Amino acid sequence: MEVVLVRIDNRLIHGQVSTMWVGNHKVDRLIVANDAAAKNPVEKSVLKMAKPRTIKSLDILTVAEAAKLILSDKSKDRAMVVTRVPQDIRGLLDAGVPMTEVYVGNMHGGPGKEQLDQCVAVDEEEKALLTEFARQGITLISQMTPSSPRTELNKKLLG
Q1: What pTM was estimated for this model as a whole?
Q2: Rounded to whole angstroms, how far apart are CA atoms 31 and 77?
Q3: Domains contained in the chain, number
Q4: How confident is the model over 30-49, as pLDDT tens digits?
């Protein structure tokens, strides 16, 4: 399979992912890589209901399972990988999943969080991980929808 898009989004699968990102990148397979979602039957059920009709395959997996699938699948699928938090990306990278670009979507604000962008708020651990990814040469892009302005977060993180 070809991973055509990797996205961090607290909401995982929702309207913007289902209608805009999937269509814009001609995605036919969605992989949710998040341990909590993979282990929660109720959340898995809700995510399955949110799957766009154009998607032929939806995998809701732990980070380790997702990495194994990504590294071993030889299909011609065009996949989008969605994670909930930067820690999920760290797990994929540690397992050997190659990445050059990560879209950072909605990361909710709250107490103790720094607002990096209109839709990206991070705590200290998340900021440290994103900074580490930027130092590794991964381009981090904040963009709500494919038609909205892109903001490269690397400059903000690396100074």
Answers
A1: 0.95
A2: 11
A3: 1
A4: 999 999 999 999 999 999 99
